[in-house]
Structure formats: structure tokens, C-alpha cells
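pls design
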């Protein structure tokens, strides 16, 4: 069984910062990409940022220069440092990991339960 547990969401004023963490636990052999998605009310879920096992990163244009994704492979943990937050960043943020539980088994995408980020104006 694999679990992704997120923490760090909350309420912050515009211009403030938050740091999200997501730890993957359970029977894990290898993790490929890890990332963060978000879903605002009435909108589709979108990829915010992703990081590969080798450290390559990608970001949605709207957060470039403000958000930083990082990863600790030894702890199977991914972080999202969010600075200069804007009201439009308000959403439920979901952690995501593409991993395999055994050698030779196809990689599968797993999701966290989501954490609310609310940015007030």
C-alpha cells in the first residue's frame, strides 16, 4: 500500500508565502516524477510544478519565478515553496507521484488527499 501525505496548506495574505510538503510512504521500489497539481472551484485540475528523479523541473507559466519545487529522494518527499502568493493561487493542492512498488512492475500514478491553500486579498 502506498500513501502520499501532504501538509503545509492554510490561509495567507496576498504577497505571503507557504511551503507544502508531501511524503510518500509504503512499499515503494522507485519513484519517477513527483509534482503538485491544483484545482480551484469550477476549474479543471492543472499541473503546477513537477520534478523528475534527476532533478529536472517544470512549472506552469503562472507560477514561474514565484514557486519552487524540490525533492528529497532519500525521504521520498517533494516540496513546493510558494512565494508572492496571489488570490488566484487559491485552490486545493494535490501531491502526485509516479512510482513502482516492484522491479518490473509498471509505474503507476498516486495522489495525495489534497490540502487547501487560500490567499486573501
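designed seq:
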Amino acid at each position: 500500500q502506498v500513501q502520499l501525505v501532504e501538509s503545509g496548506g492554510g490561509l495567507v495574505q496576498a504577497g505571503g508565502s507557504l511551503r507544502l510538503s508531501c511524503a510518500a510512504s509504503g512499499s515503494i521500489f522507485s519513484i519517477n516524477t513527483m509534482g503538485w497539481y491544483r484545482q480551484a472551484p469550477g476549474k479543471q485540475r492543472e499541473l503546477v510544478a513537477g520534478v523528475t528523479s534527476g532533478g529536472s523541473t517544470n512549472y506552469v507559466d503562472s507560477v514561474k519565478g514565484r514557486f519552487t519545487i524540490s525533492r528529497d529522494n532519500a525521504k521520498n518527499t517533494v516540496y513546493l515553496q510558494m512565494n508572492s502568493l496571489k488570490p488566484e493561487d487559491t485552490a486545493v493542492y494535490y501531491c502526485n507521484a509516479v512510482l513502482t512498488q516492484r522491479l518490473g512492475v509498471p509505474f503507476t500514478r498516486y495522489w495525495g488527499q489534497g490540502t487547501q491553500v487560500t490567499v486573501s486579498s
